[in-house]
Design a protein that fits this description.
TIM Barrel; 306 residues; 45% helix; 10% strand; alpha/beta
Length: 306
């Protein structure tokens, strides 16, 4: 999943009705909002989607709904590995690929136990790839159930199979990202960085794009970064954007994804605050912080003129 243009692949939220069922009408509107903002792909059925709180049937139905709404406008990826043996994870990988997505994302922390060696992890990955012939895949260093960060050597080995075309990096380490990029030679592969603190440096180093929760607040801002990261004439504006994102990282992570859903409400999206995941209380203090965040963003948006 790579092209000459740097891109933004948002980690999609799941809208719920207040009774806890998936709100597919709002999911359609949310998908269209992402597309209108200029994203170059979508990551459905991910941690931001509350994937661990969805049933297997819901994971498939939700992903198929996104694929149908997108209708080929941009690539769609979705998680395929959850609990169970490698065979069971491979079975669901094959199932979710059948929804029409472009690649199935493998959660590194579910392909080996935290106490397992790197050798066990690598062997399990190859076993899963052998059980899913013809399925394009990618990796996500998801923090749940624990974060297993791939080494440059591991990623290079997996990409060399020709089966791995995507990597969502959460190492939070620009040197690790540069090391990974230095060993990957497949032009079809793309590394997408989740850490906004070094987003611009990562793009300049060769990352294919960004995939971050901040895009669930201001997707057009992340698209703007990808479009302008290397424009010397916009250095001052880029520095201001970087500072805005760094300064407000705590606000956007607090009781997430509730705060992101509330921020989207302020944009006019009819989305409930309901979440299945226990993330804490959406207190008046948290609400006021998001209100202030929106005010600061409005000022920044006017300065950037987009």
């Amino acid at each position: 999943m790579n092209n000459s243009k740097k891109g933004f692949i948002p980690v999609m939220l799941t809208p719920f009705n207040n009774d806890g069922s998936i709100d597919y009408k709002t999911l359609t509107a949310l998908t269209e909002l992402y597309l209108k903002s200029g994203v170059t792909g979508l990551f459905a059925n991910c941690l931001s989607s509350e994937m661990f709180e969805l049933s297997e049937a819901e994971r498939l139905q939700l992903t198929k709904h996104v694929v149908d709404v997108v209708a080929g406008q941009v690539p769609v990826v979705a998680t395929g590995t959850f609990e169970g043996t490698i065979q069971q994870q491979a079975d669901f990988t094959n199932k979710i690929y059948g929804t029409g997505i472009d690649a199935v994302i493998l959660i590194s922390g579910l392909l080996a136990k935290e106490t397992d060696s790197d050798a066990v992890f690598v062997d399990n990955v190859h076993q899963l790839l052998n059980l899913t012939p013809g399925v394009p895949t990618g990796f996500y260093e998801c923090p749940v159930p624990y974060k297993r960060v791939l080494s440059a050597e591991q990623l290079g080995e997996f990409v060399d199979t020709g089966r791995v075309i995507y990597h969502k990096d959460t190492s939070l380490d620009i040197n690790q990202i540069k090391a990974k990029l230095s060993v990957v030679k497949n032009p079809d592969f793309g590394l997408y960085d989740a850490y906004m603190v070094h987003a611009i440096e990562s793009l300049k180093a060769g990352s294919a794009g960004l995939s971050c929760i901040q895009g669930n607040f201001f997707p057009e801002l992340i698209v703007w970064i990808c479009d302008n990261y290397n424009d010397a004439s916009k250095a001052e504006e880029l520095a201001a954007v970087q500072q805005f994102l760094e300064s407000n990282m705590g606000v956007m992570h607090d009781v997430y994804p509730i705060v992101a859903k509330y921020a989207l409400q302020k944009r006019g999206l009819s989305i409930s605050n309901f979440t299945r995941r226990e993330v804490g209380d959406f207190t008046p203090i948290v609400k006021n912080a998001v209100d202030q965040l929106q005010n600061e963003y409005d000022i920044l948006q006017n300065e950037l003129s987009f």
